[in-house]
């Protein structure tokens, strides 16, 4: 019997048989089904695993034992495996394509980092183990701390913060503690530029400070004269991002630091964009007193998903005595973890010692590159962003023309004026072309902002493909094809959602829909 070698048509647009899943096509690639929930695939009568009946005495549960069936879905092993594989295909990741998110720095996480993080002695330790049994882990933390201080030219580092915003809070807490110790507790105002990350004013307010805004100049940077005008005896600190959220290096940062210090205040630098200058500029040389470092942005550790994150904060000599515990210190008996320190230390800001896996990944990245390699990565990130800016600015509108950007290129929506297409529409259409959208509507100082950060991870071929798609979309929008944008995405697993309704009325619990008996005809 011969094999049927004719096959059947499976091209895009082939009618889907009634009753099957809602198949769709992503950028002409493989068909992706609308994957149901596990509860919708399985049923309560079957299970892929045979378990013995167990008699449970619920008396020790204090009356909280379950009164009804657990209602778990029963699946076979192939059904379970296929479900999660199909879900993974629906998810966009850095392993499947470019993430042009500005400010978020979604760079490639080398697999060597993952291999090192899974080594015994790193992956299977517990924070309550005796210090004598975790000397290798403490030595790694000590070396990571050394290189973070070296790269920033600072005197101390606190590794324990769980994210950038947490590190930001730790740094501002150190500033508050230092001023209280110096009898300067009356300083209750923090200066925050209008282009700052949203966590900056939130952190200041959380710690009881009032926020005084500093306007940005027409070129997107902060004017030292505006800072001087905002300074007063009640100012505790300035929180300045450099490079800033417009993707620009602050040219007067040294003068700003000098003015802030002369007024008796501290300089907190938001280090979220340190990846643009690592190995090239040491923030301590610019006059900063505290700065958090996002390991997931600068040193490639995994990003997002609610953690595990790591946001160490480096401190100047003036703030070093106020660093939180625990911290690592070399003693006569080996490396020790200082849990209780004398003096004016803040105490704990988190229960344990931080995220070990992130420490391992970050140090692996540092040692793999070396000082020259880290500097080259920063330079390549800047080069890639300027390449995108140069290719797109003949069509896209640039809010701050005439100057190079740093690690991210910023565009506004004025090029879409009169087309009936918004920044959101444009981003949704980009999904149909197989790209994750750029950051939208941030920074707030630019109307309809589109913030693009390619990172150093992407090749010129990838950047060219992205730019080609962006230019083609812009030309189509200007040609009057608004329907392509306002109805997008058409080829994603899910069509455009009512995001406002979803945010205000989220469905947080799945309810099984019981089938009702049908009346006889």
Automatic annotation (TrEMBL):
It catalyses: N(6)-[(R)-lipoyl]-L-lysyl-[glycine-cleavage complex H protein] + glycine + H(+) = N(6)-[(R)-S(8)-aminomethyldihydrolipoyl]-L-lysyl-[glycine-cleavage complex H protein] + CO2. It holds the Pfam family Aminotran_5. GO terms for cellular component: cytosol; glycine cleavage complex. GO terms for molecular function: glycine binding; glycine dehydrogenase (decarboxylating) activity; pyridoxal phosphate binding. It is an enzyme of class 1 (oxidoreductase). One of its GO terms (biological process) is glycine decarboxylation via glycine cleavage system. Keywords: Oxidoreductase, Pyridoxal phosphate. Residues 177-304 form the Aminotransferase class V domain. Its EC number is 1.4.4.2. Residues 1-28 are annotated as: Disordered. Residues 377-481 form the Glycine dehydrogenase C-terminal domain. The glycine cleavage system catalyzes the degradation of glycine. The P protein binds the alpha-amino group of glycine through its pyridoxal phosphate cofactor; CO(2) is released and the remaining methylamine moiety is then transferred to the lipoamide cofactor of the H protein. PANTHER family: GLYCINE DEHYDROGENASE (DECARBOXYLATING), MITOCHONDRIAL (PTHR11773:SF1), GLYCINE DEHYDROGENASE, DECARBOXYLATING (PTHR11773). NCBIfam families: PRK04366.1. This is glycine dehydrogenase (aminomethyl-transferring). It comes from Devosia insulae DS-56. The lineage of its organism: Bacteria, Pseudomonadati, Pseudomonadota, Alphaproteobacteria, Hyphomicrobiales.
